Amino acid sequence: MKTKLFTVLAFVFLFSVSSYAQDYKSAIGLRFGYPLSASYKTFLSEKGAFEGVAGFRSFSGYSWFNIGAYYQVHNDIGSVNGLKWYYGAGANVYFWSYDTGFAGDGSTSIGISGVLGLDYKFANIPLNVSVDWIPTYFINGYGSGFAGGYGALAARYVLN
Q: Whole-angstrom distance between the N-terminal and C-terminal Cα of the chain?
């Protein structure tokens, strides 16, 4: 998985050197990470953006659905047109379900998250890609405490 992510990122960076990127207002797509999530991102100002995500994961007897919202501050990387780095914070709600043989096993967790990533808008096609890391501190429920974070590669269709 890490090799594939590195290959995709290398391709994006190599391609971006020869293209001129444009800004965008809103985009919708998928975050290919942990978990697979739908993503909607919109800029509220020149640097400030809101991203909302909803994801689902199922694995060996447990599953979860999460909803998250993040505020991100974007900054240009001057050497590559269209490439920005961003940081921010937000919150998540996780709904857990366990198949342990007991009826009704489940839980709800609330998490506070940080965000750190790279964002790129292709110049000639309506495509935005990003890669980020979202460390989360769970306030309650399953996995209370700090989680190392979840990384993802996102691909979004630019709406305007």
A: 32
Phi-psi region of 4 (alpha: psi -120 to 50; beta: other; left: phi over 0): alpha
pLDDT along the chain (160 residues), means of 10: 44 39 83 92 96 89 88 94 95 83 69 96 94 92 75 94
Indicate the domain borders of the chain: 2-158
Alpha helix ranges (H) inside the chain: 2-17
pTM of this structure: 0.78
The per-residue DSSP string of 105-131 comes to: -EEEEEEEEEEEEEEEE-SSSSEEEEE
Look up the CATH number of domain 2-158.
2.40.160.20
Provide the phi-psi class of 61: left if phi over 0, else alpha when psi is between -120 and 50, else beta. left
